[in-house]
Amino acid sequence: MADFGDARLLLNFDDDDRSELTHRVDLSPMLAQGGVFEPLREPAIFERVQIGPHGRTLVWKVGVNEDDIVLIRLSFLFCSGNSL
Fold first, then answer.
1. For the chain, what is the mean pLDDT?
2. 3-state class of 22 per DSSP?
3. What is the Cα 48 distance to its own chain's centre?
4. What total number of domains does the chain contain?
5. pTM score, whole prediction
């Protein structure tokens, strides 16, 4: 597998009903697929991750236009076994 630097995120969840949950996610398998994930291989772009509306997505703005984004649903990450 190609080395994409540190393609891991540390996510902290707090829903006020339970104690805080911390989860590490390794996105390097997704980056290896290329395609829509290609821009995220660039560390400067990967580091610009934001939490999307309602806290359910990770969002990267990868272009000049507002529509140039890469979006990953958090539920996909946890269901697909991409965690460390």
1. 77
2. strand
3. 10
4. 1
5. 0.72
